[in-house]
Every structure is written in structure tokens, then in C-alpha cells.
Amino acid sequence: MITPDLRRYRGDPLLPDAARPAGPADAQAVLPAGPGIEQVVVGGVSAGGPPEIIPGMDDVLRRLAAVGPFFTVPYGQEPPGPGFRPLTSLYDGQLAPYVAEVGRRIGSGPGRVAASTAQFGIASRLWSVGLGCAALAGRVPDLAADRVWWRLPQEGSLQLWLPQPDARPAEGLGTSVLENLAVLEARLRERYGVSPTVLRGNAASGLVGALRVLTDRVPGGTAVELARSLLAEGGALAGTGTLVHEEGLGVAFARRSCCLYYRVPGAGLCGDCVLRTRRGT
Fold first, then answer.
1. Antiparallel, parallel or unpaired: β 168-169 and 159-161
2. What is the average pLDDT across 67-94?
3. Residues 196-229: pLDDT tens digits?
């Protein structure tokens, strides 16, 4: 189970773990992980085949898996099981069934709340992989929508696979992830009427969630500087919220929008939600 890491993603850093409300990432990830996916491809070795050596990224992705399950992604020419397709297929033809399944799991139904939750989960996974690689090695895999493959098992959260994780400069991470998400977000706005403000806020919140975990476990300031540049005035995610980072104390974020997850039956407010300040909580 990976609940502790994901509660840190969405929780208020001033509250103990038990008091932190669940958020969208929790809803998709606290279910049991798919059977054996993280053991099928380890260190670039595909089950049933010869070692697959990927110059530049195989060691980085192997080291990243030690940060936690949410940061683990199989890689190599052979998929770690059946059913993987490029994210482009999810965004084009499989989006409605996927959002409906997210809505079923969280109990919201297949509407705006489920659509927002689905986008938040994908954004969080992409940022975790990219920001983690940047923090560890100063380079990142190509995270374009046609280079990242996905499947949703019957139990557990969205699983990703990188067939060819070529090494790229870390400075391009924001462009890579946000261009990927732009295709998804356009579909969600058109089909479900989710506000672009909500979707940009989700992208920012997922970025800071990944940063919060990394600052606890990976030394160095690369991840912090990347996040700051994206959230700063003039950055791609400018205006989505306020980031605070203090060495030794961790990361806090107050977003200027709401992900809508509070509308899920039995859910509370996320730790970074704008409604916390508006309601005086």
C-alpha cells in the first residue's frame, strides 16, 4: 500500500498524517497495486528476454524506484504485461471509460469531479517521474503523450511504462509534461466542462506534491528550482498558487483554485485547497 506517500502529496504539512484529508491522488492510488508490475521489469531487464540497456536513463529510473512506488515506472522495449497503450489513446478514444471508472471508484459518478480527479492523478504521476529523474541526475525521460504508455488494472491505480526513456535536459521537463497534459485538458474541457483554472491548479498541485516527497528523500536543489521556475511570475504555471520552501522544514503550497474533490461523498478539503482560507479552516 502506498497511502503514506500520497497523503503527504495532498495533506497539510502542519497536520499529522492521521488528520490529513484524502485528495484525488489518494483515490486512485490507495487501492492495491497491480500484480507484480514493479517486479516484471527491473533495471532494464525484461521478463523472458535479454537485458535491455537504455543509455542515460536506465540507472536513473532504477534509483528513482527507491523513492517510493508512486515514482516507480517500468521501462524497456518489452511491456511489463498486456494492455499497455500510448497516453494518446487514452486522451482520444478511452477517456470516457477511464473517467467513468475513476468516478465509480471514488463514488462521484462520471462527471466533472471524476474528470478533475483523473487529470490530477495523471499529472501527479508524470511530475513524479520527471521531477524525480531531474533531482537524481539532472536529466529526464521524454514524457510526450505518445512516448508514455498506460493501463488501468482491475485493481490499483494507473500504471505507466516507458518504452524508450531517452535522456533529455531537465530544463525541458515543464514543457514536456505540460504539452502532454494540454491534450488531455482540452478533451476534459470539451467533454466535461472542467474549468481550465481547475486543471492548471491540479497540474501545479501535482508538481508540488512530487516536490514535497522528493525534498524529504533526495538531496539537492534541482527539483526545487524547477518547481519554482514553473510557478514563478512568467512561468508556465504562474498564478496557480503560492509555493513556500524552507530548507529543513519542507514544502507548502496554497493553490488558488479547487480540484473539486471535496464533492466526493465523505471527502474533506485537500491540504492546499483555496477553500481552506475562504472558509477560515
1. unpaired
2. 93
3. 999 999 999 999 999 999 988 888 789 999 999 9
DSSP-based three-state secondary structure for 202 = helix
Neighbours of 226 (CB within 10 A): 22
CA proximity to 138, closest of 167, 179, 178: 167
In whole angstroms, what is the distance from residue 137 CA to residue 170 CA?
9
SS3 state of residue 132: helix
Beta bridge partners of 139: 169
What are residue 85's phi and psi, to 5 degrees?
-140, 160
Q: In this model, does residue 134 exceed pLDDT 90?
A: yes
End-to-end CA distance of the chain: 30
Q: Tell me if 198 sits within 8 A of 258, measured CB to CB.
A: yes
Find where cell 508538481 sits: 207
* Residues whose CB falls within 8 Å of the CB of residue 247, separated by 6 or more in sequence, listed in order: none
In the structure grid, which three cell numbers stand for residue 64, read together?
A: 528513482
Task: Decide if 177 contacts 160 (C-beta within 8 A).
Answer: no
Query: Please, what sign has the CA dihedral across residues 102, 103, 104, 108?
Result: positive
Neighbours of 32 (CB within 10 A): 11
Spatial distance between the Cα atoms of 41 and 145, rounded to a whole number of angstroms: 21
Rounded CA separation 228/67 (Å): 21
Radius of gyration of the chain (CA): 17
Q: Is the pLDDT assigned to residue 48 strictly greater than 90?
A: no
Give tens-digit pLDDT for 5-37.
332 333 322 222 322 334 555 444 432 233 222
Q: Is the whole model's pTM more than 0.70, yes or no?
A: yes
Nearest to 170 by CA among 138, 147, 143, 144: 138
CA-closest candidate to residue 153, choices 32, 280, 41, 264: 32
